[in-house]
């Protein structure tokens, strides 16, 4: 007969050794009895609480293993659910230590993966967050664990961003786990790549992208997978939406350089990558190596040498090993016989100028004629080649070059509207003869000033502030330039003196 009440009383009063002895005797007599297993299981649980509090991970692991050896019925989830919280607690404490005994932690995780938990549940999610901290550096074990845990068990709370005590928002648990999981599935190193297996991972990733469209880095891992199996025809469509939103990251341009086929486009991306990686220069060695090889292919030896020396500087600053490819380049005759360029930044800037255009190949390039610039609010009015009218805010579109009435700008619109501010994604000063001839003309004639302070030179309107600024008098001959503008009141185009 089981002594369940006595075991419970001993356990509750803290007499764990006595409770364990009694429960073990009962289990020996009735080895397959579920209640005998439950009795000793709850004693083990009290030990787990004790060792979690004491941060004694060795003893915790041993007791947990004894618990799993009970092979509790799959329907008995109360005990495992409680164990999940204690396991998570000690794991979080262990991963904060300077020296981590991964062998013990791996054993704890392996034992937990034999238990049956309530799914989904808060305790099960807590276990996920804890094990994520341990397994993230080990791709093989991480994939194995996530496949067991099953991402279908993510709860809504797991998908919410966490808020730190200082109020800063950090990536949600779900995004952290999905990012680590699919990163682990990207083929790396010299291991043989099974194309069908990679395509299965891509299909799994597509499902996750559809379910979590705001997790941008998932697209990045899809690109890495498809690059690994040379499926470039599928890459650009997947990668561009991500690249458009993360265009300030150097590795986005490095990846785009791998995807694009045109050599000049590749160089444009690499130059943009270098310029975007100024804050993380220690991570750009591979980009400099690619540029060095490009310069060598063009017999631009001075520029190539500067790239090689830049890599050496980066590695030395980090006290890291010089890559073998770089050492080979240093040992070649051209390197010793060539004087290095002062730097390659001018080259970077010139070639990166058109980089943004590569992100929006589906957007049409257009030329616009600037008809008015309002310095007070930053609003700029323009006319398109088909006489459509529009306006945009210079500051909100981050246009860094000066713009004046009469300028012609080559643009790509993200959003064009005649009734609301347009959004520009690419803009640079340009020329377009047909647009210039249509909207610009030389004026020579006598000014006629009205009683209201404005004037006309034939059909060209002269604003009052221009008359006052130049102290024009009625009948004075004026030699100037005029642009075509739209009169909203008359709903027609006319000419205005600049």
Task: Explain what you see.
- By secondary structure, the chain is α+β, with helices and mostly antiparallel strands.
- 51% of the residues lie in helices and 14% in strands.
- A hairpin with a 4-residue loop joins strand 4 and strand 5.
- The chain starts with a helix and ends with a strand.
- The model has no long low-confidence stretch (mean pLDDT 90).
Describe the SSE topology.
Blueprint: H1 4-12, H2 16-29, H3 34-54, H4 57-68, H5 78-94, H6 102-112, H7 122-135, H8 139-149, E1 162-163, E2 169-170, H9 173-184, H10 195-211, H11 217-228, H12 235-245, H13 250-259, H14 263-276, H15 285-297, H16 301-317, H17 324-330, H18 333-337, H19 345-352, H20 355-359, E3 365-373, E4 379-384, E5 389-393, E6 408-415, E7 423-429, H21 433-439, E8 440-446, E9 448-449, E10 455-457, E11 460-462, H22 464-470, E12 477-487, E13 492-497
Parallel strand pairs: 11-13
Antiparallel strand pairs: 1-2, 3-4, 3-6, 4-5, 6-7, 8-12, 9-10, 10-11, 12-13
Helix pairs in contact: 1-2, 1-3, 2-3, 3-4, 3-5, 4-6, 5-7, 7-8, 8-9, 9-11, 10-11, 11-12, 11-13, 12-13, 13-14, 14-15, 14-19, 15-16
